[in-house]
Structure formats: C-alpha cells, structure tokens
Amino acid sequence: MAQSNPPFMSGVPELLLLRLLDQQEMYGYELVRSIRKVTGEAISLGEGVIYPVLHSLEKNGSLKSRRKAVGGRTRVYYALTRKGRDRLDKLRSDWRRIQGGISTALENPSHA
Amino acid sequence: MRDPDFTRLRQRLLESGIPTRHVGRTLDELQDHYRDLIDEATCDGESIDDARAQAAARLGDIDNVVAGMLACQNLRGWAYRYPRIAIFFYPLACLFALPAMPVIAGVSNAPLVARWGASLLLAGLFTATMLLVLQLSILFG
So what's the ipTM on this one? Predict the structure, then answer.
C-alpha cells in the first residue's frame, strides 16, 4: 500500500492528469489506475478527489469531455485541449525548476 | 460495510453552492468509479463484502471530495463566489423582471393562451352576430 501523500503534493495531481491526457483520452477510473502505474504507486490519491480537479480543468478550458457508452455504461472521457497543452508545458517547466532547486538544496545544504 | 453515502455528498455539494447539473454529473462519475473498484476487487478474488470495503476505502472520504470541490472556486455558482454582488443583483433583477412576468408566463403557456384567445374571439363574434340579427329584425320587422 502506498503511503499517504504529504501536503506539498498540492498541484501534482493536475500535472499528472494533464500529462496522461496528453497521450490519449481517458475516464476517471482509468486515469487513477494510470497514475498508480506510471508513478510505481508512489502517488496514491483518495480516488474521489480526482473529479474536482478534472471538472475544474474542464471549466477553465484545459480539458474537454464527451460521454461514450462502453460495456453498458456511459463513461465521461476527458481529453486535452490546446489551452491544456499550454498549461501542461508551464506546469512541467515549473516542476523542473522547483525539482532542480530542491535537489541542489538537498545535495549542498551548506548553500541553502 | 456501508457504501459511500452519496446522498449526503449530494446534499453537501448543493448546500455549498455547486450547481445541480454539476452535482449530478459528479455523483454519476463517482458511482461509476465505485462500481469499477468493486469489479476490480471481485476480479482479484475478493468476496463482495470485502470488495465493497476496499472500494469505499479507495474512493476516500466524501468530505475530501467536498473539500476538493470547494477548493476549485470556478466550480461554484457565481452567487456563492460573489455573494455581495448577488445580494444587490438579485433584487434588482427581480424588479426588472417583474413587468416581463406576464409575457414570460404567456410564452411558456402559449397553447393555453391561444385556446383562451380563440374562445374569446368566437364568443365576441357570436355576440356581434346576435346583436346584428337583433338590429336587423328591429329595422325590418
């Protein structure tokens, strides 16, 4: 079982969702499974909290959704928009900058 | 093991100013997700009770879903986001909408209004005809 995620993980679900949806459209359950898989279960979400993030991203135009009947159920599939791709690029560069800064601080604590 | 309390979740989201349409969609997706989790656990060989318990645990506390929704301000209705504006806007809107109410009511009940109008027209024509006949009978009688 993965550990619960610390508070500084705020914003990470958004980054991961955008990254996964950049590859293909997916529905909520599929997205959570993919997050567990691609992060080696290092990131474990309370799975219900994914929907506020998805809906908020859709509302601000980063995602679009469509209903699709699959196996007798109607799924809501999400896909990335042009705006979402721009948002992903920005979040990715922010993340790399922060990650670089933290790595430097951890390796050279005397300069921190 | 109890299922997640989706009724309470619905109530809490509505009370927090999430629009009804959006609440319905969120619940549909969560319930589908919950069913998928149960299916996954039963496929892994769990009993139905254990599968439901695992699914509920993985879905997480519904309070977290509510908190997540409230953290996304753009998901709330505008009156909840800008309550001060709403306090002024709603009475003003009602004041301006009041004279338009009969028109709106007429449009929304158009078939009824049309039948009522046609009945009045027929009654008027009938009365006019009767008066005409009466007048003619006085003139030529």
Answer: 0.80
